[in-house]
């Protein structure tokens, strides 16, 4: 026998800390703008520190190198950005998009000779005055400050690029090179090592059509799905439960590299946005559907775990800006609505 359980679904925006993401995002899409915060630190020999303090060396050039590993949007579209000095302390372990509006920066572009065309390595040169103050800060914190820089896309930018972020293996990470000169003596290049980086993705839940719900990485947009299990018979054993979602391929948007799957979690407390990570499952894509086994979630509800719904998000939630347009509970074609198939037997519980 096939029964229909009452259901409800909606999408919403959730603010996350993106400081642990494997790359940082810069650019603009239809619904989101992504900025990058970077901070570099030095490890210099005492001889250089002495020269900095005595002001006997000058910065003659400085530039940052970023390694691209992702893109989304119009591949041939415009891409450009400005670089601003940050004036206050921030931390990649706490900074979120909600903090961006109040971030204190100097509204003067300090960059030049920026790479803006399609390439693997992107570079931009920085004001010598700025990097001089960073060197002074390293030598003596009373001589200068170093809160890092903000990269912001220009208004005509039509895509988002991802660049490798800080990682313990130190592969393809952002690097600052500062070329210094002691007149009549030497020219040397000092290395600034990335210590903090984070993306600030600003935007709203994407419009994917009246019948669809949006899941978007990094922004982040997620779906809550609620089923009413009160119509199930009492004293049953849940043998299996399979969840199937239908994707609207025309309204979905994907980048150059992503994992084409979704993740499902049991919501522990909807008022606190908390999840029970003991109940985490993956929905794999076949054709225009995502499906997967969520038996243990349904068993938990059947065994009197409070049913506050299930959460569906991108498996790579901090990777890019992929948009999965999923048919909601109000889809005109009933067959495209979220479908939960439960096989049970009467006479007991697991």
Notable traits:
350 residues, mainly beta, 2 domains, eight-stranded antiparallel beta sheet, six-stranded antiparallel β-barrel, elongated
Q: How are the SSEs placed, and which strands pair?
A:
Blueprint: E1 7-13, E2 23-28, E3 32-42, H1 46-54, E4 58-73, E5 81-85, H2 97-100, E6 111-112, E7 121-126, H3 128-139, E8 149-153, E9 159-164, E10 175-182, E11 186-203, E12 212-216, E13 221-227, E14 236-246, E15 261-269, E16 274-286, E17 289-293, H4 295-302, E18 310-314, E19 323-327, E20 339-346
Antiparallel strand pairs: 1-13, 2-3, 2-9, 3-8, 3-11, 4-7, 4-9, 4-10, 5-8, 6-7, 10-11, 12-19, 13-18, 14-17, 14-20, 15-16, 15-18, 16-17
Helix pairs in contact: 1-3
Report on the structure:
The protein is mainly beta and 350 residues long. The longest helix is centred in the middle third of the chain and has 12 residues, at 128-139. The model has no long low-confidence stretch (mean pLDDT 92). It has four helices and 20 strands. The chain folds into two domains: 23-203, no CATH class; 206-346, no CATH class. It has helices spanning 46-54, 97-100, 128-139, 295-302, and strands at 7-13, 23-28, 32-42, 58-73, 81-85, 111-112, 121-126, 149-153, 159-164, 175-182, 186-203, 212-216, 221-227, 236-246, 261-269, 274-286, 289-293, 310-314, 323-327, 339-346. Strand 16 (274-286) and strand 17 (289-293) form a beta hairpin. The protein is 9% helix and 45% strand.
